[in-house]
Amino acid sequence: MSVRCLFFGKYTPESIKGIMGGSDRMAAVKAVVEAAGGTVNLVSFTRGAYDVVVDMNLPSQEMMMGAMATVEASGSMSETMYLECVDGDPIWDAARSIATAYKPANA
Predict the structure, then answer these.
(1) What pTM, to 2 d.p., does this model score?
(2) Cβ count within 10 A of residue 27
(3) What pLDDT digit, counting tens, does each position of 11-56 carry?
(4) Are 30 and 38 in contact (CB under 8 A)?
């Protein structure tokens, strides 16, 4: 089972200095994801709340969390967010089935 993950990160000031000095972040991202057995779909610098977004596929949730822990432990990011992409259809099917048993407090 492959896990698709979106990573959002905000670099620390020290990391930004490193990037300005010529640090190849695309190669670094690819190296981490490949070490976890995954593939990179997209790496893009962004304008807004986060500096970078990475769209990747990893072989398992454990490898996804291991890659994320590696990034967190590096101290290169001041803020991160990870989103796992999921197939919505089974979720909505389950919700429709469960909803028949739910009674709101005001019912």
Answers:
(1) 0.83
(2) 10
(3) 999 999 999 999 888 999 999 999 999 999 999 999 999 999 999 9
(4) no
Domain ranges of the chain: 3-99
Question: Which tokens hold the place of 32?
Answer: 């981490």
CATH match of 3-99 with 3.90.79.10: no
Q: Calculate the average pLDDT of the chain.
A: 94
Phi, psi of 50 (to 5 degrees): -120, 155
Separation between Cα atoms, residue 104 and residue 52, nearest integer Å = 41
* CA-wise closest residue to 33 among 11, 4, 13, 74: 4
- In whole angstroms, give the CA distance from residue 70 to residue 35: 11
Question: What is the crossing angle of helices 61-74 and 25-35, to 10°?
Answer: 140
Dig out the tokens for 24 from the structure.
């190849």
For residues 3 and 67, the answer to whether their CB atoms sit within 8 Å is: no
What is the reported pLDDT for 106?
Answer: 86
